[in-house]
Amino acid sequence: MLAAAHFRDLSIKLKLRLIITVTVAVALLLACGAVLTYDQISSRKDMRNDLEVLAEIVGSNSTAALTFGDRPAAEEVLSGLKAQPHVVAAYMYLANGKLFASYRNAPDANAAAPSVRPPGSWFTETRLIAYKCVTLNRQAIGTVCLESDLGVLRERMTRFGWMILAIL
Tell me, what's the pLDDT at 163? Predict the structure, then answer.
């Protein structure tokens, strides 16, 4: 009530400035929210695509190790993922679903390997997980699973947050 009474006592010039300022602020907030939402969706799609491609590459490089049962070679292929700091764990499974090799890059990575799932990728609360089938001559010889943290998304959201704050 007090605010309405105070607003009533303002000059028309000040009322118009206040209305315009509030309108512009709301428009900027809505525009920034739309850009932020679009970027979040786009970034998640790109991240999913990148991890699936990486899983495909790891799978392609693992065909010999899976075919010949060469565990050290499989672990060497997986250890090459240390160049990808956001990939926190990787697992390679035989065609029968048995864990063949694993790699962990983070202390909080799951202690136990997840069970084999059909090819695809999805987000959990803290991870992006991708499964890819490894084939040789159109026959499944194994599966690769990669787990990535969501640090890239958090970093991007933080940068966008600061940019939006600076714009406002």
Answer: 85
